[in-house]
Amino acid sequence: MSTAKPSSTAKPSPKLAATVLDGKALAKQMEQQLSPRVEAIKEKTGRTPSLATILVGDDPASATYVRMKGNACKRVGMDSIKVELPSETTTEQLMAKIDELNDDPDVHGILLQHPVPDHIDERACFDQIKLAKDVDGVTCLGFGRMSMGEPAFGSCTPQGIMYMLEHYDIELAGLEAVVVGRSPILGKPMAMMLLNENCTVTICHSKTQDLAAHIQRADIVVGAVGVPELIKAEWIKEGAVVIDAGFHPREGGGVGDIEMSGVADKASAYTPVPGGVGPMTINTLIRQTVIAAERAAGIEA
Length: 301
Fold this sequence. Notes:
Blueprint: E1 19-20, H1 23-45, E2 50-56, H2 60-76, E3 79-85, H3 91-103, E4 109-112, H4 122-127, H5 140-147, H6 156-167, E5 176-180, H7 187-196, E6 200-204, H8 211-216, E7 220-223, E8 241-244, E9 248-250, E10 253-255, E11 269-270, H9 277-297
Parallel strand pairs: 1-11, 2-3, 2-4, 5-6, 5-7, 7-8, 8-11
Antiparallel strand pairs: 9-10
């Protein structure tokens, strides 16, 4: 008598749809939570939380970014103090202006818009910002403290990404993370923040050999290199979390650092471009300014 088992007719379970990490929606939700905190500061101190933005020169893109940040301040009831300086401003003059804002009790956060003209020592000017007002997370002292797990404001784009990962309950401990990019305000702090959350982190860059091999083993990929679609969808591992911090305007919208066509079919979660990381960058700047104002007012955040 035959003992052959009947063939199974069970179908494999369908793959769950990837979670869209919607930074635009999350930023809007967070703004609604910040507004009452701003009102509480006003009631206690009589001062309106204020972000000072410094723009040196007349770069149109930088002017647009400063305007967007000012609009975000207004939406939560904060003040935005615009400081516009001519392109011929010297390093010493810019540092003197930063010192004025450091000493002004009505200013709770300082943002020096990047980039400044080439003749200015940008790093020296960033580091002139008082730690308590470094809400953009650009000082060496702030980076060092953050890396060591001490209180400091994180650089806004990577910190915004961390807020987003937390909001969507993505467990990071034990994941293998690959960060593509090593800039001082994105790639490097991103790597340190992931390391602080117990990821195993690899930083890739323009000199990395066989980038595809690094991406293929990553549980979480962060594109932060500033090159359109450098990271190919075919490299992405099944079930990976894909974070695209790049944006490059193109007709009909724009693209990021990661080739997104096909990523949704492989990833467990991903950020759209646009509408993912970008809104969280500005929102984090506002959130950290509110925190700075709360600390100055003696309010427990």
